[in-house]
Amino acid sequence: MSKIVLFDGECNFCDRSVQFIIKRDPNAYYKFASLQSDIGQQLVATYKVPFTLDSMLLIDGKRCYHKSTAALRICKHLSGGWKLFYYLLIIPRPVRDGVYTWIAKNRYKWFGKKAHCMIPSPEIRKRFL
């Protein structure tokens, strides 16, 4: 069963993160949607995600993960050594989320915003909701 990664479609860092995941997900385990899209907004409402939450989300069955937990759970199904990052979940969540929040607050300043979404190839386009 595919898992859904929701990301900030205006964020260059988030876009690069999605490209990173796609390159390391040869079995197309993950599907993607921007938080700003209709489906993204529907999923946010369905999973009762607070509007103020500034995070990438991972929808996995009936569960919705956010912040560092989402990022590390995504790593579990990536190819290569990236799987090892999953085990960082043993670090207490407040510590992990503190680092995640710091990066999230500065991502526009460090990486900028996009005016347009990327246009994926037809093969990759199938993975976007």
UniProtKB/TrEMBL annotation:
Xref: Pfam families: DCC1-like
InterPro entries found in the cross-reference section: DCC1-like, DCC_oxidoreductase
Highest taxon above the source species: Bacteria
PANTHER family: DUF393 DOMAIN-CONTAINING PROTEIN, THIOL-DISULFIDE OXIDOREDUCTASE DCC
Protein name: Thiol-disulfide oxidoreductase DCC family protein
